Please model this.
Amino acid sequence: MSSVVPYRFSIILPVRNGGGYVKECVQSILSQTVQSFNLVILDSGSTDGTIEWLQALNDPRIVIHLAERPLTITENWARVTTVQRNEWMTLIGHDDVLYPDYLATMARLIDQYPDASLYQAHFDLIDAGGKFLRKCRPMAEKENAGQLLKKILENDINIYGTGFMMRSKDYDAVGGIPMFPNLMSADYVLWLKISSLSYKATSQQTCFAYRLNQSTTATTKDAVYIEALKLFVDYLIRSREQLSPAEDKNEYVKRILAFYTKRVARRLVLSEPADRENLTVSRFLEETKEYSRNFLDKDHPFDPSSFTDVRIAKLIDSTVITRKLF
Model:
């Protein structure tokens, strides 16, 4: 039975050659119990019949925006701010699935927390074949941007591009998703910016599934990964007054740099030297120490080798033998 709510939603689906996944995704969207929505397709040059299949559905709720040429993922997601949307919007990956009560759950959450700026629900993690893997990590019902950032830095949250609801005007006000390389870490910045406008409200209901396919992060070259992560770090450092105004500047910066150092050191030690353009863990740590001087007072130096896991990564990466053994 269809439910009527006083909100109109737009579900934004960027896609290129979605294959069988996009069919499951679209069918899950069209099966929502709440029908006051449209599905906005941003196609970036599909050649696998995706568009023909969507057109054959002949569903008035589907609005298709074709690209004049094949677009990168970054270019395609940049189009979100250029297309007409309803008052409320959510983004979805073409291989993810909404459960029938997703929009109904979001409507109830908006009713409960009308002054929030970002809304989310709990979700399942599934594998490439759709098999259930586990539930997402528990989330608080209300979180401000600083609390959300703390969970990101501590790797204590499952946070992806699907499942968040926001006002279209707020999405536009923060400039949309930032154009980081391959959009890596860009969703973190987007959710922090929008939650900074007020706070994030989360339903305890489980109402969608995120598919753990091989991620863009895993297939991206190390140099590009580091570039994107550094852009995220730059944003965090510039935004301290907004994200953590009460925290001492130097301690805040060190906390962010520790997150950056550990992430990259681990990434490098797991990569082949040729894949990372011969950047070693040791050289990266020296570069990070120099980079940190841009943000810290002279009497508050940052030593990236002070962390046990980073020192271990440096040791493993120091010889061909230890890398092979690892």
